[in-house]
Amino acid sequence: MTNPAIAANGLRKAYGEKTVLDGIDFSIPAGTVFALLGPNGAGKTTAVKILSTLIPPGEGSGAISVGGHDLATDAQAVRAAIGVTGQFSAVDGLITGEENLLLMADLHHLSKAEGRRVTAELLERFDLTEAAKKPASTYSGGMKRRLDIAMTLVGNPRVIFLDEPTTGLDPRSRHGMWQMIRGLVGDGVTVFLTTQYLEEADELADRIAVLHNGKLVAEGSAEELKRIVPGGHVRLRFSDPAAYRDAAAHLGGDAVRDDAALALQLPSDGTQSILRSILDRLDAAGIEADELTVHTPDLDDVFFALTETDTDTDTKTDTEAESGTGTAARTHAAVPAQNKESVR
Ligand code: ADP
């Protein structure tokens, strides 16, 4: 097996009393997209800043390697291997898009001819050729974001950190950005993406990790994550109140009743065997539902289940949080702890 493009063990960071990253692990294969998902303030940018050498890891962190280089002993080589696009753009608005790219080429010590070649190629690739000679301050949000990423590509990095690359973009620009990211991965680049958008992680990521209260509370492919949350159900609807009551009686305690809609909801992981067992029970009782729908949880369900904490959970002691004996054991927050192994 080849070495992961990014590997971190027990990554920690605290600001004063506040623990932001509480010992998290990453192992990201080369040529894949990894999405770090978390609500505002979860610590996503902090993780990106550490992995991209902008700030040092916290005390007690284990080994970190990026692009095959050890972060502690060879930060310079890490910097040479990566590109970072943060929420705060590196684009200089006073000069043109083309000049921004040529400047980056200079910083990377490319020859004049090579710098011009790379600049022209990137302008073309990012659909900026027409706007190349205009000051970057006149660009739309989407164009600035594209220029920003083009600038990080001048040095031909093999690992790219994209910190919330589509926050604030309109849907068209967002889709354009997704296309661009897929193109990068097609070229073998490893992408470490942070996002608050579940749809984005679902669209792009090979693996997704959910960061919450300083820990990775779940990790897996979008499909794997969707399977670990409750919320999947089968809904049966009836037009005949007598059939509805019969079905409720036969299906028993599992069924959640919606008397107004004459509908029953049964927990289900969406597998064929569960569906068959529900239908068999209805058949045996001679009951016919008018409508049957299967609801599979989406990433929204996952995200809310994993990051939803009540005030009790927030005030739990560390011991309780570690052992999972707090009130969260009853809440969704307990789900990932029980299931984490199964999605690895
Ligand atoms: P995210 O990117 O997930 O929104 P951040 O990594 O930016 O989260 O921030 C995580 C937490 O760390 C926040 O509570 C933030 O206020 C805090 N934080 C970030 N940088 C600093 C800093 N330089 N000093 C003190 N606290 C900070």
UniProtKB/TrEMBL annotation:
The keyword Transport applies. The keyword rRNA-binding does not apply. It is found in: Cell membrane. Keywords: Antibiotic resistance, ATP-binding, Nucleotide-binding, Transport. Residues 6-238 form the ABC transporter domain. SUPFAM superfamilies: P-loop containing nucleoside triphosphate hydrolases. Residues 311-344 are annotated as: Disordered. It is a peripheral membrane protein. One of its GO terms (molecular function) is ATP binding. This is ATP-binding cassette domain-containing protein.
